[in-house]
Amino acid sequence: MLTDMEIEKLSRRLRRIRGQIEGIERMINEHRYCVDVLQQIGAARAGLYQVGMIMLESHSRSCVVEAIKNGKEDDAITELMGVYRALHK
Amino acid sequence: MLTDMEIEKLSRRLRRIRGQIEGIERMINEHRYCVDVLQQIGAARAGLYQVGMIMLESHSRSCVVEAIKNGKEDDAITELMGVYRALHK
Amino acid sequence: MLTDMEIEKLSRRLRRIRGQIEGIERMINEHRYCVDVLQQIGAARAGLYQVGMIMLESHSRSCVVEAIKNGKEDDAITELMGVYRALHK
Amino acid sequence: MLTDMEIEKLSRRLRRIRGQIEGIERMINEHRYCVDVLQQIGAARAGLYQVGMIMLESHSRSCVVEAIKNGKEDDAITELMGVYRALHK
Asked: Entry's Gene3D superfamilies (chains A, B, C, D) (predicted)?
């Protein structure tokens, strides 16, 4: 579970990333130089990775710990590995 | 240089990614299960990577080839390596 | 803690990766075509990632679960996040 | 084409990476703490990425430039995109 402060912080980061994506759409339609667009794509991807890491840490500290304390460790770890593979792409 | 068809195709992909990001913001604010959110983050990142690869290929086939034919290979390759590194994050 | 069977399996994978690296060294010294060498480098990196995922899963199922059951969740998760970041590079 | 100096430099890096892999095999067989092993795996992967980037740059500056100047740009770029995808894993 995310705290209200975490939700606020993540929402702000996601809004900024959404703004970057809008910026990329605009740059493409304005025929801006590909290299500048590609740098922005890299920045948006890096931003999403940071959001993912923050959520993953929060998820681990709450849901995963809770699940393990309730003896549901097998499912919790299987799920965690799936998430990690999804984020790594 | 992107062709009009490439711009159309990339714009469509970017709109879809922007929709995914909005979805992630909503999911977070609705306290949805972190694992579902994390899978969406992974999907958005993978989508951005695909957009990056399409642009990188188009850039290589036009600007990089052009630059090399005009003897500006040193700068073109230096720039290309910078883009690779930016996309890999 | 890795089981004996896991150690055997990982050792076999690592020997194969070591063989790939030796192969890459040989290819470079024999002036083989860069693209073939680069494909091998990609394969060795992917192999190391698989080894990392196997170890990470085993570590999570044993040490992390153990630590959490003993109330040492804070350190265990901090360490886990550090490992994620190290593997992602 | 790699110069003799590049071959020497890459061979040295690859020998170091091979040593890291041997070290990882040893650590696993000595039941060393998984987290330390995982950090080493991350370091070896990062080392291979650097080797890949050096080769990719050298390949681009020689073979790709040569191919483009000889009008074989289509194949050269297709190959380059394949290499980039292979390295990214």
From this structure: Metal-sensitive repressor, helix protomer
The count of residues in chain D is 89
- Domain boundaries of chain B, sorted by first residue: 4-88
- Contacts of A59-68 with CB under 8 Å at 24 or more apart are A59/A83, A59/B34, A59/B35, A59/B38, A60/C77, A60/C80, A60/C81, A61/C73, A61/C74, A61/C77, A62/A1, A63/A1, A63/B33, A63/B34, A63/B35, A64/C68, A64/C77, A65/C68, A65/C73, A65/C77, A68/C64, A68/C65, A68/C68, A68/C69
- What is the Cα–Cα distance from C2 to D31, expressed in whole angstroms? 7
Structure tokens at D19: 């040593």
Residues of C in contact with A85 (CB under 8 A): 53
Residue numbers in C near A61 (CB within 8 A): 73-74, 77
Residue in this structure with the two tokens 């339609």, named with its chain if needed: A29
∠ CA A62-A68-A71, nearest 5°, is 140
- What six digits make up the tokens of A19? 């703004």
Could you report the average pLDDT of every consecutive run of 10 residues in chain B (89 residues)? Answer: 91 97 97 95 96 95 94 95 89
Using CA atoms, how far residue B20 sits from A26, A82, B49, in Å, is 18, 19, 14
Report whether D60 contacts D80 (CB < 8 A).
yes
The whole-angstrom separation of Cα B32 and Cα B23 is 11
Cα torsion angle, C30, C31, C33, C37, sign = positive
CA D60 to chain centre: 14
| DSSP one-letter string for A68-82 | HHTT-HHHHHHHHHH
CATH 1.20.1260.10 assigned to A4-88: no
Predicted pLDDT at B88: 84
ipTM (interface predicted TM): 0.90
Residue C83 at interface with chain D, using a CB cutoff of 8 Å:
yes
Q: Which residues of D touch C83 (CB under 8 A)?
A: 35, 38-39, 42
